[in-house]
Predict the structure.
Amino acid sequence: MKNISEFLPTARSVVESCHPLSHTALPVNLEDRNRLLHESLERWFGFSSLRPLQKEAVDAALDGRDALVVLPTGGGKSLCYQLPALVLDRLTVVVSPLIALMQDQVDGLRLNGVPAAASHSNLSAAGRRELNQLIDSGELRILFVAPERLFREDFLQWLTQQDVAAIAIDEAHCISQWGHDFRPEYRRISELRERFPGVPMHAYTATATPQVREDICEQLQLQDPAVLIGTFDRPELTYRVLPRQGLIDQVVEGIGRHGDTATIIYCISRKDTETLAKQLKSRKIEAEAYHAGLSAGERTRISADFRAERLNVVCATVAFGMGIDRSDVRLVVHAAMPKSIEHYQQETGRAGRDGLPSECLLLYSGADAAKWRMIVQRGGEEYGDDETVRAQLALLNHMQRFAGRARCRHRSLSEYFGQDYNEPSCGACDVCLNELDLVPDSHVTAQKILSAVARTGQRYGASYVIDVLRGSKNEKVMQRGHNEIPTFGLLKDLPAMRLGNFIDQLIDESVLVRTDGEYPVLVLNEASAEVMRSTRQIELRSPKGGLDQKPRRRRSAAGTSVARELNGSEHEVFDRLRAVRRKLASDLGVPPYVVFSDATLEELARERPTTRSQMLDIKGVGPKKLDSFGPQFLEALAE
Ligand code: ADP
Ligand code: ZN
């Protein structure tokens, strides 16, 4: 990293030449600069300290240096570009693909008194007024822009005349073809380098494998960037992966573990979302389906209800959640397997954004992968791009392996994103919580499976081998005479799904191989022979029945200790504060978490401040919010 004295003259002279009167220069002295940072953090956000990588990211921005910041969802990326804009007191442009998210961020910032606005094609009349007013008064410091707006010539013309301190690219992985969410229009962002020479560029993403990271730096032509990569692990999330057996019961059981809290259930198809929502309603759980096939009005109503806490359970396709920033989601269910670990990480990442313990439940079946494979291939025909299709299929295979294996979920996820995981047991996944049982006759079962693969000539996929092992008398089995071989019907008491899992586990243990390609088949390798000869022992795992554990309170996303759980009376206070928050939010027309996060409400319930200055000590309460909301909350606390 650059020495502070090297950059300060430039940064300062820019600030001074553009705004000779109204702007404070950045202090030369490091101590003074940190003090200014700290004051701004308190003043604008009500936080008392920066999280580890936030400090480095903010420093890079203040140093006028390019940066790539990879922090998991909930890691606090937005602050990394918001705070420098306020400290430097200059305009930062934030490119973001998600209009709903933009609007939430703007609402949240404005409640803190930050001069922020958004520019996109869905801007309301009020939004446009706000934007123009901030531009006219010269106060605008944070401007969110959708890519499609950014590249309108009149907009670019205008922007080049502004004193732009930095350009932040949110969801930067969208620029990479190797990523899980490639958006061709993101490619144009590199053009900004020519339009804004010398303006530092900061890329932010929550999910990026090493390959995607490199691609981002290259595509955006980042110059000697500060590369800041946070820990991917989210210790406050408990991961469970279960074979899908009676979806509705499994979902109801999952919701039952968390009571009356926010739940998102992801399905692959629109129809699945509707069926599931209907089934939940018939079980007296208020739920709505959400997908891109609904009318815009319907979609807006549902997301508004969810954000305003009028609705807690949403069955959705991936169309939902982009921009739904409700921070108290306690359960994310995948009713089917997502098509990449990146998607899984991003969607499960919507649980527990407030750092409180939450659960992620994946219910999968072997058929999910087949369905995705078809969808990806069809998408490829539209793309006309084989390379992108191959990249997507590889991502899918990783996801499938993750689901089928009996390896610590936290460890598997960390390793996928190129990070070591050093805890011997995470204490927060089905594997480490010992929710998987050791199958009593594991080794013999493994031998039977391998033998069936051998006896059918290593020419068939998992589902056919399963048919043979279960003694199915379907046409193909009969035609091929596989009803005559010794392995036929050897495992007829095991459900097909369970057998599929065992096959995945054997593949995971590298004693069985699934070939690549369009029609993968199972084949044996040298290790298979060791298992057959019993020179190598195999342990298979299967999921236990009922789960009644709520996720336990562990560490927060930032690695700091999470406060102890609320006791009974504190819980009552918390619920009362939640009602106050809901009312205030609805009066203001903003989502409740924008007023205060659950973490802030919990601390209020625990500390029960009685004065304004005590309330200011609570994390998430800044002077501006104290003015706006202090009286109502202090009144509720006094009761
Ligand atoms: P991301 O964009 O990385 O998913 P956000 O920027 O939305 O994460 O931040 C997640 C949550 O953490 C928000 O509720 C935010 O207010 C909170 N947060 C961010 N930085 C800090 C901090 N330094 N101290 C306390 N809370 C923070
Ligand atoms: Zn684990």
Summary: Residues 568-588 form the longest helix (21 residues). Residues 1-23, 555-561 have pLDDT under 50 and may be disordered. The CA atoms of residues 456 and 482 lie 7 Å apart. The domain at 4-229 is CATH 3.40.50.300 (Rossmann fold).
